[in-house]
Automatic annotation (TrEMBL):
SUPFAM superfamilies: Adenine nucleotide alpha hydrolases-like (SSF52402)
Phylogenetic placement of the source organism: Bacteria, Pseudomonadati, Planctomycetota, Candidatus Uabimicrobiia, Candidatus Uabimicrobiales
Family classification: Belongs to the universal stress protein A family.
Domain UspA: 5-133, 205-270
Protein name: Universal stress protein
Length: 278
């Protein structure tokens, strides 16, 4: 069963890294027929400040040159651009998220400055609904798995760390649905367990899909990053423990530590039954 989204959210700071994240947000909106909200917070916001979604789709040859907003609607993509004036972008983004029923958040991270800019305790008010949101993080120095130039998906190797807690089956299900949604004919899923007593999981067998399990010892984060590098990982999918709010889900967690060091995108999957089972 494919992923089924209704609403995707992308906070943009208009940086080159944010443009790469935008490409991923637009691609998933197209693949799932989801509405896309793009939010930008600045002291002064005008319509010219926002990333040009139509220009991106023209670049992908999905829209004709000099396309119109009507052309965008005809292809079934509905984009809402929200500009909020103010200095505290993080609190405003968090407040905006709290008013929406989101299925996915796509954002870029600046690893040099540290992931803490997204984890400031002053903006992490408890929002239970947000902790049920899939979140795709694109490290600022990587190109991700959706080409900004063509819109094509390159996902050959998906890394899935597994442990008894949190339940890894959520990540397994998500990886399966992601592969189906992206119509991946050939993909390798690498399950990485650090320690003893590797948990058993259910996987879906399809022609062209390969599942392999690696069990290792050592520092959990270093082993995950190392195995992702060794296997040329295009994406890491991790189950996160549920907490009071969206940002609390990552602060001080193994997910946050992986985010700080990963060379590829990281998809954080909440350990709640957000996936509709067959």
């Amino acid at each position: 069963m494919d992923l089924s989204f209704k609403q995707i959210f992308h906070p943009s700071d208009l940086s080159p890294a944010s443009n790469i994240a935008l490409a991923h947000a637009v691609k998933f909106s197209l693949l799932t027929n989801a509405k896309l909200d793009i939010l930008h917070v600045a002291e002064s916001v005008t319509s010219d400040d926002f990333p040009k979604v139509r220009k991106l789709l023209e670049k992908w040859q999905l829209l004709p040159e000099n396309s119109t907003p009507q052309d965008l609607k005809k292809m079934g993509l509905f984009v809402k651009k929200v500009g909020i004036q103010g200095a505290n972008s993080l609190s405003r983004i968090s407040n905006y998220i709290s008013t929406k029923e989101l299925d996915m958040i796509v954002l870029s991270t600046n690893q040099k400055k540290g992931f803490t800019r997204w984890l400031d305790k002053s903006i992490s008010e408890p929002i239970a609904r947000e902790s049920k949101t899939l979140t795709l993080f694109i490290p600022g120095e990587c190109q991700g798995f959706v080409s900004y130039d063509t819109g094509k998906v390159k996902l050959h190797n998906i890394i899935i760390p597994i442990a008894k807690d949190p339940d890894p089956q959520y990540s397994i299900n998500c990886a399966t649905q992601l592969a189906l949604t992206c119509k991946l004919d050939k993909v390798c899923f690498t399950l990485v367990h650090v320690g003893e007593n590797c948990p058993s999981v259910n996987t879906e067998e399809r022609q062209g899909w390969k599942w392999q399990t690696i069990v290792s010892k050592g520092n959990l984060v270093k082993e995950i990053i190392g195995k992702a590098d060794e296997n040329q990982g295009d994406l890491i999918i991790m189950t996160t423990k549920g907490h009071d709010g969206f940002l609390d889900m990552f602060r001080g967690s193994h997910t946050e530590q992986v985010l700080r060091n990963a060379k590829c995108p990281v998809l954080a999957v909440p350990n709640v039954p957000w996936i509709i089972e067959d």
